[in-house]
Amino acid sequence: MSRVLLKRQVATAPQRPQRSWRLVLRGYALATAFFYLFLRWVAHPYLRSASIQRHPSPRSTEPLPEVSIIVPARNEEANIWRCVRSLLQQDYPADYEVIVVDDGSTDHTRAILEQLAAEPAAASRLRLLTLAEELPPGWAGKPHALHAGACQARGSWLVFTDADSYWSPHTLRLTVSEALARGLDLLSLVPEQELADRWNRLTLPLALMGMSLQFPPPLVNQACCPLATANGQYILLRRTLYEALGGYARPELRGSALDDRDLAAVVKRQGYRLCLYDGRGLVRVQMYRGLPALWRGWRKTIFVGSGGLPFMLIALVGLPLVVVLPFLLPLLLWLGRSWWRRWGGNTREALGIVLLALLPLFSYRRSLDKALGLPWYQALTHPVAGLLFMGILAQACWRKLTGRGVEWRGRVYGARFQAHRWAAGLQRPSHKAGSHRHSSASRP
């Protein structure tokens, strides 16, 4: 009898670890499926944002206010002409002005702006402001430029937009009307992306996935949820709100390398209403041109905006698990088919695990690619984009560990820079006295 029991124990002993491996694979496939279903139905950057064009609010009876559009520009010769022309061609029925802040450009940005300002259509709207190259202590470049423009603005509403953005003619009218109708204090748009080269087509879906996972639009738009973000390519806010907060001169904003996100966090924390909208058909942008610029841009964003080194390391581990490994599952199961059979698995179970991991992934990618105007087969590049972002993440982690910081537009953002974010003492941005509404004096 004892011999029979011993044989049974020996026969059943290996089955426990074998079954454990199969359970691990099932659990992994199930977790991956839930991850992409969450992205598809909760955190989609376009479909889960509010929409002005799909669901417009009733028109407000309040008259449209004067608006000041502020554009910080540093070495933007490739973009500034198209951007400013689109701003000057708005069909906004009330008065508005465009203030372009030249933040120490060393290329032809200033010359292009002067050509634009000489046009008759720009004479009554366009104002140019030139800042000194050297920043005051504790300031980052973009907050300094935005605050300088806001100090010169006349409008009761402010719009902050980037020099690489391109507006549709009705953008200002629709967004201001929406903000008034809903009683918003801050309105921001997730812009339509111009994917002119293969590197943007490869990486942008994954970048949007990461950003919307960190800040799901429905949660951002809930007043009771502390999550807050905005997109610096289009931020519309009340001037009274900006001044009540202290603007970008506020200590935690003046040195921010993620000025849009940090501004939204302060706005929501103070109890004001903000909303993130789908900006397709309203604002278009092309963020980076070519792989080197794309690498530097996303490295800077990850370095300053990922939540610190622990989160960067978690992302470096998690990225291959949810982006690369699902595509490797069929190959791994096929190569290990003999082991799979020894574990008691069969072909049907293996196929079920693969489909459970991949179908929600492809469903999410198809919805996102369709919103971006990409073909269905672009989803097959998902793991390649994951490998590229793993390289960017690894370099950002290394620079964080070594304290080297990252360079962006001739300025270095690093550990020493971050310490300046909390520097004491409010300072109004310094600028040259020659800011003008092309040959008219600026407001003091």
From TrEMBL:
Gene Ontology terms for molecular function: glycosyltransferase activity; hydrolase activity
Primary location: membrane
Sorted UniProt keywords: Cell membrane, Glycosyltransferase, Hydrolase, Membrane, Transferase, Transmembrane, Transmembrane helix
Residue numbers spanned by region Disordered: 424-444
Glycosyltransferase 2-like domain: residues covered: 68-188
Annotated pathway: Carotenoid biosynthesis; staphyloxanthin biosynthesis; staphyloxanthin from farnesyl diphosphate: step 4/5
Ranges of Basic residues composition bias in the record: 429-444
Compartments, record wording: Cell membrane
Record has Transferase as a keyword: yes
One GO CC annotation: plasma membrane
Pfam families on file: Glycos_transf_2
Annotated TM spans: 23-43, 309-335, 347-364, 376-394
Functional summary from the UniProt entry: Catalyzes the glycosylation of 4,4'-diaponeurosporenoate, i.e. the esterification of glucose at the C1'' position with the carboxyl group of 4,4'-diaponeurosporenic acid, to form glycosyl-4,4'-diaponeurosporenoate. This is a step in the biosynthesis of staphyloxanthin, an orange pigment present in most staphylococci strains.
Similarity remark: Belongs to the glycosyltransferase 2 family. CrtQ subfamily.
Database matches in PANTHER family: GLYCOSYLTRANSFERASE (PTHR43646), GLYCOSYLTRANSFERASE 2-LIKE DOMAIN-CONTAINING PROTEIN (PTHR43646:SF2)
Name this polypeptide is given: 4,4'-diaponeurosporenoate glycosyltransferase
